[in-house]
Amino acid sequence: MADIEERMTKTIDSLKDSFNTIRTGRANAAIFDKVRVDYYGTKSPLNQVATIAIPEARSVIITPFDKSLISEIEKAIQVADLGLNPSNDGKVIRIAIPALTADRRKELVKQAKTVAENSRTAIRNIRRDGNDDLKKQQKDGTLTEDGLKTETDKLQKLTDKYIDEINKIYDAKEKDIMQN
C-alpha cells in the first residue's frame, strides 16, 4: 500500500508540474520550465543559464549569465510555443505577457483538462496494478478472501481520494485560466 500511495503522490506532483507550465494571464516563472536553450551544444533548462524575474504581473525579465546566449534564449522561447514574443536590449530579454483571448483561454482549459484526465488514468492504472498484486497474494495463500476484500476497499478509497485531489487541482487551474 505504501508503494501504491507513493506512486499516486508522484502522479499528483507531476500534474502540478504540468499545470505550472500552462500559462495564465499573469507572469509566472514556471511557464519557462520546459524551455531548453542550446548552451554550447547541450540543451539546458532556461533557469540554469539565466535568471528569471517577474517585476510586475504582466512582464518577465530574463537575464542570461552569459550575454552571448541572448539570441539562443530568444529562439528557445519562440520555439517553445508559449505564445510569447521576447525582445532584447543586448543585456536582458523582456517579455510582455499579453492578456489571453477568450479562444486561447478555452484552448488552455482544454489542455489542462487533458492533462488532468491523463493523471486520473494514471491513478486508475496504479489501482489496477495494486488489485492485480492483491489477487496474486490471495492466489499464493498470503491473503485471505476477507483480507482481499478489505485491502481492495482500502485501495479504492485511496484511489477516490487522489482522483478528488486531481479534480480540485484542475478546478483551481481552470478558474485561474479563466480569470483575467
From TrEMBL:
Which compartments does it reside in? Cytoplasm
Question: What are the Ribosome recycling factor domain coordinates in residue numbering?
Answer: 15-178
**Which UniProt keywords are present, listed alphabetically?**
Cytoplasm, Protein biosynthesis
Q: Which GO terms describe its biological process?
A: translational termination
| Xref: SUPFAM superfamilies | Ribosome recycling factor, RRF (SSF55194)
Chief location of this protein within or outside the cell: cytoplasm
Where is it found, in Gene Ontology cellular component terms?
Answer: cytoplasm
Citing just one GO molecular function, the answer is: ribosomal large subunit binding
Matching CDD domains, A to Z?
RRF
Family to which this protein belongs: Belongs to the RRF family.
**What does this protein do, in the record's words?**
Responsible for the release of ribosomes from messenger RNA at the termination of protein biosynthesis. May increase the efficiency of translation by recycling ribosomes from one round of translation to another.
Name of the protein described by the UniProt record: Ribosome-recycling factor
Gene encoding this polypeptide?
frr
